[in-house]
From TrEMBL:
Residues 1-25 form the signal peptide. It comes from the Bacteria. Residues 139-163 form the Ice-binding protein C-terminal domain. NCBIfam families: PEP_CTERM, PEP_CTERM_FxDxF. Keywords: Signal. This is Ice-binding protein C-terminal domain-containing protein.
Length: 166
């Protein structure tokens, strides 16, 4: 009876791991924050996040996962192997800290101020473990707004120069 229970537990654990390792899909839901939009990213295993834009934005995102190692005893392995947005790969940075025999390595994938036009996008995270992060969208300034700002600076400079010479 004890062997049957152990076998049953092993089969259940294997099924749970297989279910977690399969690819998942999720729609990103952006919420207003400041002058832009923000969405939280989290998951376990390969996950694809989809979203659609109705206008132009600057996209920034950071996704991180942690590897835990105890040399000679335990190693979770790198939790994330790649992150991409419609095929554009994010850059990788990693940092390690040690606390006694435990080594913690954080892998962070980032893509900053990437211009996006109106359309549909897929953010793919290839992972074997848990990860978390955030995606933000900042509106792209209209050319008229930039021209008005430059004109305003020009007027302010002209006024300052006249006051200085008078």
């Amino acid at each position: 009876m004890g062997v049957f229970m152990k076998l049953k537990s092993l089969v259940a654990a294997a099924a749970f791991i297989a279910a977690g390792a399969s690819a998942q899909a999720a729609a990103l839901s952006f919420s207003p924050v400041g002058g832009g939009l923000k969405a939280d990213l989290s998951g376990i295993g390969d996950t694809s996040f989809t979203f659609t834009l109705s206008s132009d934005y600057l996209f920034s995102s950071s996704v991180a996962g942690v590897q835990i190692t105890i040399p000679g005893l335990f190693d979770t392995g790198a939790p994330i192997s790649s992150v991409s947005l419609n095929g554009t790969a994010f850059s990788l940075a990693s940092s390690s800290t040690a606390s006694g025999p435990v080594i913690s390595t954080t892998y962070t994938y980032s893509l900053l101020n990437y211009p996006l036009s109106a359309g549909s996008y897929t953010l793919d995270v290839k992972a074997t473990g848990a990860f978390g992060g955030v995606a933000t969208l900042a509106p792209v300034p209209e050319p008229e707004s930039l021209a008005l700002a430059v004109a305003g600076l020009g007027v302010a400079g002209f006024v300052a120069r006249r006051r200085k010479s008078a």
